[in-house]
Amino acid sequence: MELDTRKFKILQAIIKNYLETGEPVGSRTISKYTDLNLSSATIRNEMADLEELGYIIQPHTSAGRIPSDKGYRLYVDQMMSEKEEELNNREREVIELKEFLSEKVEKVEELLQDTAKLLANNTNYTSLISTPKYFKSLKFIQLSQVESGKLLCVVVLQGNVIKNKIIDLNKELDTETILKLNILFNNTLNGLTMEEINLALISRMTAQAGEHTELVRTILDVVAQALSGDDDLKIYTSGTTNIFKYPELSDSAKASELICTLEEKKLLTNLLVDKEHSEGKGIQIYIGAETPIQTMKDCSVVTATYELEDGVSGTIGIIGPKRMDYEKVVENLKTVKEQLDAVFKK
Amino acid sequence: MELDTRKFKILQAIIKNYLETGEPVGSRTISKYTDLNLSSATIRNEMADLEELGYIIQPHTSAGRIPSDKGYRLYVDQMMSEKEEELNNREREVIELKEFLSEKVEKVEELLQDTAKLLANNTNYTSLISTPKYFKSLKFIQLSQVESGKLLCVVVLQGNVIKNKIIDLNKELDTETILKLNILFNNTLNGLTMEEINLALISRMTAQAGEHTELVRTILDVVAQALSGDDDLKIYTSGTTNIFKYPELSDSAKASELICTLEEKKLLTNLLVDKEHSEGKGIQIYIGAETPIQTMKDCSVVTATYELEDGVSGTIGIIGPKRMDYEKVVENLKTVKEQLDAVFKK
DNA sequence: TGTTAGCACTCACTCTTTTAGAGTGCTAAT
DNA sequence: ATTAGCACTCTAAAAGAGTGAGTGCTAACA
Question: B240 and B223, same structural domain?
């Protein structure tokens, strides 16, 4: 049995209607509100076929049909039109966003949090956003003695991201030595990435350091830590409570589980890696069981990746019920993505 | 009508029982499970009095009684015994905590987050913790040129808290000038607090700066920002979903409202200031409507303040239903507070 | 005078039954 | 191939009945 044009149309109508109303849709509704001019009985036959094909589901015998995961999949892959009429509204949104975002480019964290909040408010779903994985290369390093026995080590990375650490010295250092170390580090490592700092370089440095070999090693550790940027990955969420707007998610058990997942940010990293379901343009859609996070199997997740430069990127995402307004969400994500790209490039 | 010993005992029995069971408690229960040897009828009479006095409430005509806010207040103020037997258990807990905490003193943020998690797990309520308001005085300042036209400004505060900012210069600076500025700032401002940096000092500095007056001003702004520490106040929450364990909080509307409040960390700052209900030892208990946050009027909140040094402190708190196990919560908070004090003093 | 037994009464809860409505599947006619 | 018609299914909401915990009041008692 194949999906002919009529079945396709009917399926589309069912899904559209369900997305709008959130109620299972019956044959009569489709019969009335499509231009197919078919009686409900005919629709019923087709629906039975569609169910057999796995695109729709009957919650119980005497209910209408709702889309299955497979149905949704088909919808987002083939049915979601990018309506041109909506561009108008969209354009307005873009501008608002721009104004909103450009106010405070300073504090990246705050910017991201606000962006998440904006997204959550706009869509009425839960949003999440991860800090970008910045900076691959070293730009500048500054060592200075804060007080006796304490060496302040400031590392500036490409993209003007700054890390610092105070190192406890076991002996005193004179100003001259510190100056020398500063020059040594900056001359040797400037512009290099984690990978480019190899053993050859390191041994050259330790050789030059003379009696301060140990210290150089310690400082290199700090640099490594900074470059790895492991501990920088932060994930912000917003609009958690929006899930209560959707009865299918808001019973105590499910809500609790979901909110728990959102609180344990670490669990969310899975969402930020997988690119399997990417559909060009850096938008990924996970429907139901497709999501890499078990607890979200009753949700859909849409993510987008914003980029600063090659390979330096973060992720924004929306989590909502499977019957979310995918078009709106994708629109919003695209807009925000563009805005973020723009802001960071500046 | 006064609260004689018998009424006191009965009230205590009612509250204890209610805290344990979570069910309204009836006269028969009290009659059986106290050593007063009174019939249920007598208890009923007393209960009627206690209700008139405002200590207990009847949810509906044919239900037992539950404590009112006033009743809880009396309980935490006068009935909560610090049972010595519990000290044993407590001692064990302390040690566990110590091991747990001493692992990672490095990353304060992580430490606090983990502490919050620990508290939430231990108590089965929601926990919150605020970063300490550090550092009042300036320890060290370091200016250095990262690349042409960009000046890196690192400010180290008492307590080794580090802030940095990159300043865009409108003109080039030579190494000598930067050195001079470094010396100027460190000599003039070292060890001073926000308040001590007065206009006299500032004008002296700008005078000495010569053509770089404007730059000095900019740097002073950075210093001021760092010293104010406004943007440092962070609040972490954990165990949000624990509220679902308490039916009186977990209906959709209330839970949503609560979680929303917890998400909007800014709203929580109110909890961290007010000291009105402090009961020695830095433990504050807010019952129901007493809390400064409207949305928590069905909860009780217990907070403790941990201190680094005079006036430098943060707050830990527990949010739960009014029928929370106050003794346990207070124990836990005390323990954690002590641990944090110890860790930070080290 | 304080305490108690006894009893009628209240009210939330649970369980069952009823009803209404939406929607289906099947059959026979077109 | 499509449709009208009808019996059937199932949910959700409403209505009703029974249960039990707990009360308030009264009258008797020590």
Answer: no
